[in-house]
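Q: Sequence in, structure out?
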Amino acid sequence: MHMFLSVAPSVHRLPPELLRYIFRLVGGPESALDEHGSKPPLAYLSHVCGRWREVALDMQEMWSYWPQYNRMNDNWTQLCCSRAKTVPLVLLWQIGYGQDADGTGSTYLPHIRHTLSHVSRARDFAIRHHPDPDPASTAFWRDEALPAISIPCPLLEKFWYGSNPELSDDDLRCLKPTLFGGRCPPRLYDAHLSSCEALLSTPIYSANLLHLSLWNTRAWIDVDGMVEVFRSIPNLESFTYSLSNAYRGDFTFDCRPSGRHHLRSVPMNRIKSFRITESCFVPGITIFSYLALPPNAYISLKWDADERAQGMEPHELEDAVEHMRIGLKALNQHFMSANRDGQSPLDAVEIAGTNVRPLYHGSKDRDTDESVSGVSLYAPLIDTQQMLLRPEPCLMTALHPIFTGASYLRLTIGNAGDTTRWYALWCNLHCYSKVIDLHLCGKSVERFVEFLMIRMLPGFWENTPRLFPLLESITISDFDFTGTCNRMRPDGDERPLVQALGDAVKSVYGDQESFDAIVVGATCVGHEDAVKQFKLCLGEDRVELDDTA
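A: Exactly. Output:
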């Protein structure tokens, strides 16, 4: 050991290429846009020793994060500019950021000025407009910054532009066709736009774009314009759209159905993730309705919680309901297009938390890449119960008929909040009348026990359709039988959960000829004792232990 230590080189004597590799590993992602608020990434490495300083100064990428906003003076920014003269840059312009003594927001304009002549070298470029009534910042943007970004940017890969939704100046809110010299950067694959307008004429949209996020942003005027935008980005892999109710009037588009294009008219065959998040319903569902997404794309439709049907004018509500019908038609077409070899993927359905996800035949016990991804269970506009009270219920939820024909149903209700939010789902679970196999995961076991005990109340059966009349088996997995509280039966008798479930299943399904067994998975804590207790309730031949569940 002593001989080994005597000949092993110390770290600072490693070859430069190894030191550079180590420095990059320590530094993390090279494209992080948050490296502008302190000293340049790993600047301290240049002060360890002479050799490290030589290597650090030779690594231009260490100094490529411009400007630096950590000091009132621009010394660090000037230092970075002097040490990264040829490499691609990570630029972050914060317009109106910082407070001068007189209350204005032009503190860091000198820092940004050092970078204006180097925009063509930007690899990652973020522009953020902060709320600032200071005329100096507005004039700087119009007279200096806009001309600087009106040149070609051949190295640009990521572009982030965020205006402030309260700003009304078109020069700040509207991206011009002259951006990047009027030519879409050939390497641009990621764009994030916030509180602005960027129409098709803006040189951002091309076949190279893989990721697009629009937050309170108008990218098209009407549905026909939207179709053209998506046709210009056929290789898109992820899309996020959000339009909050507070800014709907500023950034929405004309959502009236197109007279030229049919639903799902734009094939987006490479989309992996499609998210409508915290958005007004009508604009969000309109976007979904005209895109033909692949069946295995992850789809999340989550609506703005501040948008309530109770606060809508009658014509607004009717417009929303009409768009719900359009959305349901597109949703049906989406899942029907997932049929493979004549086998419908909707034979098996999973309800997990607030999502409903169809499963392909053969993937009931495991997730596979073949599975159809899910859609949000959040009911748009009003809660599920109120939706059911409409003469013509329009449900973009797990109660829609496209899901209720499943013969296999897996429930994964994560917490009490899910159950509270979806009490209408439990009360109408009888809609899944074709279920043969019921799979309860985690805490959904507790919710199901409570649900069955409610159905055992006197008079309940006479007023409610039978629950799962074709049921053959109930599988339980990933549940802790040892950590549950007792349950109170309708007759007032308090019993352990496993006994309460066994008695409830016997009461509801004991005389049902189709019912075969409760299957307890080995993933359950206390599964052996649970099997014994179930056998006391249901008999030896109606209880099984499954090592794979």
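The radius of gyration is 30 Å.
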